[in-house]
């Protein structure tokens, strides 16, 4: 495939395909976002409607509670001739509380019908009429007792039971009314004496839906009241009352949960159906919103996106046919010469013809090759000198105060006539100095361990009972070569900083293993650790392209810190000697200790390759 076809294919794959993918993902995310946003808005709306409906019903509960508390129903049921008893007549001797309740009952605008089933006396089939209702005959008490509703009312033991329209038409009639049924008890000894049935008009319920303030995205929303069996009890638009919700909605619904929102077909139209269960009632508020009305903006975005994508594709084809041939030809020549330069041939030159940008590109390429050719040798020479100088400086650093403290400790032992300990301390210090002043950059790991043990023994004498240590390095790895003075600065960091102010005995564990051609040296302590801010100061893996001023500033701070070679010096030496892919890796958190891993290449593994 030639360069022109490659560029066109790349344009399609890298621009058109991602653009289409971005459009599809954006459309899906936008649709999901719209659905989520609508679901939250609907949940708030349904909760508000639920609260309003509960308030209306609880107001009526309070009215009948007042009647029970003032014994109005008890007195009506206790009359000798209950069939002639009517609260419309002024036949009861009422105290002030009863008169107030009667006024409240008669003046309540929503009450359309009310009566009492009598559970007392010989004739229990009679009922006491409180409000009459034309063209409606009360269900006989014997028939009512056969209904499951009767047992439910008895089991509620006086708690009101509400029935919505269409739930029990044989008891409540066919009018769109809400009915309260509750057990009446005699207050002195709590005996069941009657069952109260009160019907209220749905004026207040209708006003709740009529006065509901909705956002612009929910203007087309339909609300319904559905019981737990899926029967649509109330529809402000009267379109679906008395139907089963499953007859107009494809996806089945499990009622009784708190809140759920699903996307499905409702009345043969894709819609978002949200369901909220009313607390303390066996009803559910259902909202239905057409998905088309919600996704208008998303569909408009999709149309614009398709149009723009087609224009981009047409422009790509035109560009490929008209301009690409000449451009790709010249670029191919320059690329071919660049590959020669990449192979190390700095004597190649591109013939620069014409006066356009391609001529400038060819001329710039030739000038660049000339500059690279002249600078390469200078940079290579200076880099070697700089690397050698940095290694010498880093290797030459030893903390003066460590030597002073060690000599002072030897002096104290000498004054105390501790000749054996003086000899041991001098031997350890000599071992440290002998390895430190060696001209070799790399030494066997065995010598590095010897140097480390000498340092640790001196420190253990100076800081008695501050810490103990363990060196766990397999014998077959001890002949491997490492940069000298690699482990000692890491362990020194543990003692001086990790164990500072601890109330327990510190422990240092030094281990080593091989991992896919790399030697891993690990120093772990149980000290105070570092917080994220302290840990962020250690940035060891620097590249060769870092700013020169930053490098000089870091070196200056390295000397000012007076930490000898220090952790930072070890990281710099490893990077300079082995390359930027090797160095130190630190894992630490406050009060949990610190783990430092030193990663260097395994020379024997590279030789086997």
Describe this structure in words.
By secondary structure, this protein is of the alpha+beta class. The protein has four domains: 36-198, PAS domain (Beta-Lactamase, 2-Layer Sandwich), CATH 3.30.450; 205-296, PAS domain (Beta-Lactamase, 2-Layer Sandwich), CATH 3.30.450; 346-395, no CATH class; 397-541 and 563-606, 2-Layer Sandwich (Heat Shock Protein 90). The chain is built from 19 helices and 17 strands. The strands form four sheets. A five-stranded antiparallel sheet has the order 2-1-5-4-3. The protein has a five-stranded antiparallel sheet with strand order 7-6-10-9-8. Helix 1 (3-69) packs antiparallel against helix 9 and helix 13 crosses helix 14 (445-462). The longest helix is centred in the N-terminal third of the chain and has 67 residues, at 3-69. The radius of gyration is 46 Å and the shape is elongated. The relative contact order is 0.06. Residues 80-95, 540-549 and 554-565 have low confidence and may be disordered. Keywords: Cell membrane, Kinase, Membrane, Phosphoprotein, Transferase, Transmembrane, Transmembrane helix. It holds the Pfam family HATPase_c. The chain crosses the membrane at residues 7-29, 301-323. It is found in: Cell membrane. It is a multi-pass membrane protein.
Give me a quick take on this structure.
Keywords: Cell membrane, Kinase, Membrane, Phosphoprotein, Transferase, Transmembrane, Transmembrane helix. This protein is of the alpha+beta class and 609 residues long. It has helices at 3-69, 72-77, 96-107, 141-145, 148-156, 169-172, 203-210, 291-294, 296-322, 324-342, 357-395, 400-415, 419-436, 445-462, 487-498, 532-535, 548-560, 566-578, 603-608, and strands at residues 111-118, 127-131, 161-163, 177-186, 191-201, 222-227, 232-234, 259-266, 269-277, 283-290, 442-444, 467-472, 481-483, 506-515, 518-525, 583-588, 594-601.
């Amino acid at each position: 495939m030639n360069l022109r076809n490659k560029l066109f294919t790349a344009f399609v794959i890298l621009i058109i395909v991602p653009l289409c993918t971005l459009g599809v993902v954006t459309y899906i995310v936008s649709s999901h976002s719209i659905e989520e946003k609508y679901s939250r808005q609907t949940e708030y709306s349904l909760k508000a409607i639920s609260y309003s409906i509960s308030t209306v019903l609880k107001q009526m509960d309070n009215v009948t509670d007042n009647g029970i508390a003032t014994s109005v129903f008890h007195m009506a049921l206790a009359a000798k001739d209950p069939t002639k008893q009517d609260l419309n007549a002024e036949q009861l001797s009422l105290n002030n509380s009863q008169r107030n309740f009667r006024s409240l009952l008669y003046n309540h605008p929503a009450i359309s019908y009310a009566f009492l089933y009598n559970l007392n006396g010989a004739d229990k089939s009679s009922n006491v009429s409180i409000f009459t209702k034309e063209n409606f005959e009360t269900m006989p008490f014997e028939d009512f007792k056969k209904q499951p509703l009767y047992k439910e009312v008895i089991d509620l033991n006086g708690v009101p039971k509400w029935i919505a329209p269409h739930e029990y038409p044989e008891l409540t009639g066919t009018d769109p009314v809400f009915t309260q049924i509750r057990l009446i008890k005699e207050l002195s000894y709590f005996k069941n004496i009657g069952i109260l049935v009160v019907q209220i008009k749905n004026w207040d319920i209708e006003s709740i839906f009529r006065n509901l303030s909705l956002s612009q995205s929910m203007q087309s929303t339909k609300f319904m009241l559905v019981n737990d069996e899926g029967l649509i009890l109330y529809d402000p638009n009267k379109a679906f009352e008395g139907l089963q919700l499953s007859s107009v909605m494809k996806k089945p619904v499990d009622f009784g949960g708190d809140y759920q929102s699903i996307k499905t077909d409702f009345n043969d139209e894709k819609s978002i159906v949200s369901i909220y269960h009313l607390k303390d009632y066996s009803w559910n508020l259902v909202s239905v919103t057409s998905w088309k009305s919600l996704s208008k903006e998303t569909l408009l975005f999709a149309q614009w996106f398709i149009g723009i994508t087609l224009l981009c594709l047409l422009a790509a084809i035109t560009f490929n046919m008209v301009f690409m041939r000449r451009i790709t030809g010249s670029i191919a020549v320059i690329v071919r010469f660049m590959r020669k330069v990449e192979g190390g041939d700095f004597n190649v030159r591109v013939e620069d013809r014409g006066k356009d940008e391609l001529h400038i590109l060819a001329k710039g390429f030739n000038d660049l090759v000339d500059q690279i050719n002249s600078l390469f040798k200078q940079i290579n020479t200076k880099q070697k000198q700089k690397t050698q100088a940095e290694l010498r400086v880093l290797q030459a650093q030893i903390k003066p105060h460590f030597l002073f403290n060690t000599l002072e400790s030897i002096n104290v032992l000498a004054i105390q006539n501790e000749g054996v300990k003086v000899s041991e301390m001098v031997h350890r210090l000599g071992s440290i100095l002998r390895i430190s002043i060696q001209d070799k950059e790399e030494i066997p790991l065995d010598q590095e361990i010897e140097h480390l043990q000498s340092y640790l023994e001196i420190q253990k004498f100076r800081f008695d009972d501050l810490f103990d240590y363990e060196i766990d390095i397999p014998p077959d790895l001890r002949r491997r070569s490492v940069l000298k003075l690699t482990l000692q600065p890491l362990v020194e960091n543990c003692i001086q900083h990790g164990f500072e102010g601890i109330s327990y005995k510190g422990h240092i564990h030094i281990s080593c293993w091989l991992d896919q051609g790399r030697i891993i040296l690990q120093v772990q302590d149980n000290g105070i650790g570092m917080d994220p801010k302290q840990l962020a100061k250690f940035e060891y893996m620097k590249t060769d392209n870092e700013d020169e001023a930053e490098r000089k500033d870091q070196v200056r701070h390295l000397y000012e810190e007076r930490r000898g070679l220090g952790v930072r010096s070890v990281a710099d030496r490893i990077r300079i000697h082995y390359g930027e892919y090797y160095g130190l890796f630190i894992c630490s958190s406050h009060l949990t200790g610190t783990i430092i891993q030193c990663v260097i290449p395994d020379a024997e593994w590279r030789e086997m390759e």
